[in-house]
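Take a protein:
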Amino acid sequence: MTENSRIEFKSKLTDELEKEVVAFLNSEGGVIYIGRDEEKAYKLNNIDEIQLKIKDRLKHNISPSILGLFDIVVEEFKGEKVIKINIASGSEKPYYIKKKGMSEKGCFIRVGSSSEPMSAKMIEELFSKRVRTTIRNIKAPRQDLTFEQLHIYYASKGYKLNENFAKNLELLTDDGKYNYIAYLLADENAVSIKVAKYKGTDRVELIENNEYGYCSLIKATKAVLDKLDIENTTFAKITPKERIEKPLWDKTAIREAVINAIIHNDYTNEVPPKFEIFDDRLEITSAGGLPFGLSREEFFAGVSNPRNRELMRIYKDLGMVEQLGSGIPRILKAYPRDSFIFMPNFIRMVFYKSSSIGGSIGGSIGGQIYLSDRQKDIIDLIKQNPKISYRKMAEILDIADSAVKKHLEKLKKLGVIERVGGTRGYWKVNI
């Protein structure tokens, strides 16, 4: 690994950090390593303190705000801990060092392996193209918003949102009103995400139409993931020597695709992402084509240019997103590039089902049975406590009561479990 237009090495934290970050923001994004070069590692003392300093400097010393456009992780290199700063390409170029202003002394761009000052003409051209119609600048259609769900999600991760949370999470317009991000994350809104299921391979016969929404986008995201987990059954075959399993879709890839579609959706036209299940495939469609300035090759390479960086930041806070730019490469590990269809105003991902491996799951149950990981978790809970309630299952698995009920109904229908003795009885597992 050598320094280039996307990689910068530093032996220690220096006063040049903001300059390098601004250059990556104004270019195609990149990575800064602190504590190493191409071959050698340098010992960093008080690494946790250094991370906090970096976050504080990037938060306060660069404009426009770059929250959601960077993340900081610690890696090991030759026995030493190294700080890695992932930086996305920003959509509000030109970015600049605050104290030096939007000038040739404050604006930089990446040229090869160095960061060079931008010319006044380049600064002017970028500023004229700056994206201003972001959902951060759009006033929410309602101002009587509440955020109990958001507080609960942050609390579950050990964070407590204070009275300034709306400002800190950038949920306000410049004049102090709730913006469209706040509207998406509020306890109540008019945004609904649909998961449709069809019989056959076309859209002629709709057999199921679920709506997840009118609530915090975080809650809706979890509901969509739960629904697709129910649909993503696992083909299982037990032989005398082994149990062979294969899900309909790669679980990691589908999770990344769902979250990517929701976070990067263009909500400026109030069109939410859509999820459609056919006999042979799953289609995920999000509004908005490729973000401005991002090519297809950069997209597939994992170059991060978040359309809604504020949402990205919050999903990352809640552990629903890992490193910037990791989503597409994770999907490509399981599915080819032609799974992505690019349109002027939409991006569609098409994932075909895996083939059945045949066989049966147990001698006492005839035919072929398909189980998702969540259903296997439920079976394990029942084996541990046959009298467990569905509400307790939901609490332990951290999913909705309704999702548990659907899993239980499916398991009963398959004959995997049965209820003995009515509501005061117990569950019996038949495998």
